[in-house]
Amino acid sequence: MSSAIFELVIFSLPSLIWRRRLVRSGGSHTQALGAIGLRRGTRSDYALALALAILGTAVGSLLLGLVPSHILHGGSKNIVGAPSDAAGCTAVVLLALAEEMLFRGFLAGLLFRRFGFRSGNLLQSLIFLAPHTLLLLVSPALWPLLPLQMVAGWVLGWLRARSDSIGPCWLLHALINLMPAILLGL
To answer: Which residues form the domain of 80?
Structure first.
């Protein structure tokens, strides 16, 4: 749990530094918060996130079926995101927020403004994929998770652009990480 809080602080720093820079250069607090996605999304954005979580959970569960059982239930259990108790679930939710602050709050916001949605979203989803390739160090058999990470990064970026908020992205990300563990006992 403490590592999840630490990661949240570290991953939030670029967004918070960027917000401060925008305010110091004459932007309003509201504009600066919007630039990093710290706005309230609409109910329809959160409903869309829930629907996408159901779809993502189904696809993720299918892809997890391609991973040998001994990999999922062995020593790497926590690495593939399987919480075993309430503290573990809380850590997964905090880690999802940390990643959303960095990848959709800071990077996507910056890349969308610089390169437009298409190129910016592709770039942020590739950057999001990069650290997830470390799963291959745990076991090359985890490769089926990588296409899901790439698509999830793109969809989360799309949701960020659509909602102008990281809130629905956080909900979607947390649910996609939690649901296979809750539903399938992974």
So the answer is: 2-184
Of 66, 74, 59, which Cα lies nearest the Cα of 148? 59
Length of the chain: 186
pTM score, whole prediction: 0.90
Structure confidence by residue, pLDDT tens digits, 28-49: 999 999 999 999 999 999 999 9
Give the whole-angstrom CA distance, residue 56 versus residue 101: 20
Dig out the tokens for 99 from the structure.
Answer: 């990643």
Domain count, the chain: 1
Long-range contacts of 105-112 (CB under 8 A, 24+ apart): 105/12, 105/15, 105/36, 105/37, 105/38, 105/166, 106/14, 106/15, 106/18, 106/36, 107/14, 108/37, 108/157, 108/160, 108/161, 109/18, 109/35, 109/36, 109/37, 109/160, 110/18, 112/161
- Give Cα separations from 159 to 116, 135, 168 (angstroms): 15, 25, 7
Q: What proportion of the chain, given as a percentage, has pLDDT over 90?
A: 72
Q: Answer whether residue 80 shows pLDDT above 50.
A: no
